Amino acid sequence: MSLAKRYVLRLFISLKYVTANVVDRRSGRVVTTASTAERPLRDGLQECVRACNAKAAAAVGEVLAMRLKVDGLAREPIHADAAKEVAKKGFKNQTKVWAILNALRSHGVNLHVDNDGDHRRHV
């Protein structure tokens, strides 16, 4: 196991919920998490009552970014493999995966996306 990628983003997407975890690979523990299953986030997204959409996924990314900042991990490199996440979640969930990744990027998280297909510099 390469410890160069210490913090890794893991996504769990179901028909009803979206959960994003940042895992510390050294200890094997979840460092920070955000989910639409949490009452405050779920109450804020009234349109996500029956199904979870890209807007809800972006909200999960925003909450995760804020929690990473509070924990002091926003500057630490957090790695995500976009192609692997899309392949695991299926093509239908591609917009949700990218909504989370883009929300993390736009809120200042040091996100390193592998195999994302675009050649922009990721800061």
Q: Can you name the CATH architecture? A: 2-Layer Sandwich
Number of strands: 5
Average predicted confidence as pLDDT: 84
- Enumerate how many helices there are, as a single number: 4
What is the class in the CATH system?
Alpha Beta
Give the low-confidence spans. 118-123
- Radius of gyration from CA coordinates: 14 Å
Tell me the overall shape. globular
Share of β-strand residues: 15-25%
The N- to C-terminal Cα distance equals 24 Å
**Tally of structural domains:** 1
Can you write the helix and strand succession as a string? Answer: EEEHHEHHE
How is the largest sheet built, in terms of strand order? Answer: 3-2-1-4-5
Determine the fraction of residues in helical runs and give it as a percent range.
Answer: 25-40%
